[in-house]
Amino acid sequence: MRKKTMTKTSHSIRTLSLMMTSVVALTALAACQTTGSSAQGGEVGRQAKIDQAIERAANDADAAGSAQDSLALVEKLYKRNPKDASVATRYARALRNENRLTRANLVIEPFAQDSKTATADVLVEYASIQTSMGNHAGAEAAARRAVDKNPESGKAYHVLGVALDAQGKHKPAEEAFRSGLEYWQGNPSPLLNNLGLNLAAQGFLDEAAETLRKAAATAPNRAEIERNLRIVNALQVSGGQVPSYLKQEEKDEEKKPKKDDEKKNDKKAAIDHDAPYVPPSKPHPAPAVQKASLSVKPIMENDPAVKQAPVPTQKPVSTAAVNQ
Questions:
Q1: At which of 135, 158, 185 does a domain end?
Q2: 307 within 8 A of 134, measured Cβ to Cβ
Q3: Residues 66-95: pLDDT tens digits?
Q4: Which of 9, 107, 131, 146 has the fewest CB atoms in 10 Å of its CB?
Q5: Residues paired with residue 295 on neighbouring β-strands, in sequence order
Q6: Do 138 and 75 lie in a common domain?
Q7: How many structural domains comprise the chain?
Q8: Which helix (H) or strand (E) element contains residue 12?
Q9: What is the SS3 assignment for 296?
């Protein structure tokens, strides 16, 4: 009887010991999990700080006018955050500004095609790249989606206007440009320049010249705007006919040697799009544009290479006709 009691006691002690061991093990496991969570949170915070540092450096490079340095930094940021739509948009814009259009399209297209990530900003950049590549119908479709996403996006209306104008849809393009002015934020010189060219294409040379003068006043260092204004002024004086000296300038411009570095670099980027970006020794040249007659140049925001639109050959139309 006594022996049996001792056995029960021993069993109880062993059970209690096992329970205590389990409690200690669970406590230790919980402590490890807490420590692991803290370590994970610390790593996330560290990575976020690195991203912020890279972004600040890229902003500084932009402010200093160093586009290639900015591109290299934004590429690092993109490779660290390849699924971030806003980072991809900024990287694609930087590539577009350097005329690396194929690579820019590869970066932004997945986000533009996905309804979950296709924000107005993503679609505006995608449309800008499409029109820079000459795909104006695709640019129009993307820009319309951007307007639907954000009806108060001046940039969406702007790129829509450029895409429409390039297809010869001048009146709808004018409406888009004017809507863009209503909601525009920042320096309006690109939009004013393109509205001026649109008005010139419709034959409203007086109003076109006035609009281009406003564009030049807001961006006095933009040589493209000054040239466009000079052409429109010459058309006014000559009754809508292109003066011979401007035709000669056009021929001289076309005779300048063209390089195919951009095409080669874009092809390489399309094949090896994960390769690190190596800044070229010289800026990429603007792609050659075939022109049948004297042309003036639409300006995308911060975009040096956009296809050129033809100057009208019809006689000037009174500015008053615009308001009728």
A1: 185
A2: yes
A3: 778 888 888 999 999 999 999 999 999 999
A4: 9
A5: 310
A6: yes
A7: 2
A8: helix 2-63
A9: strand
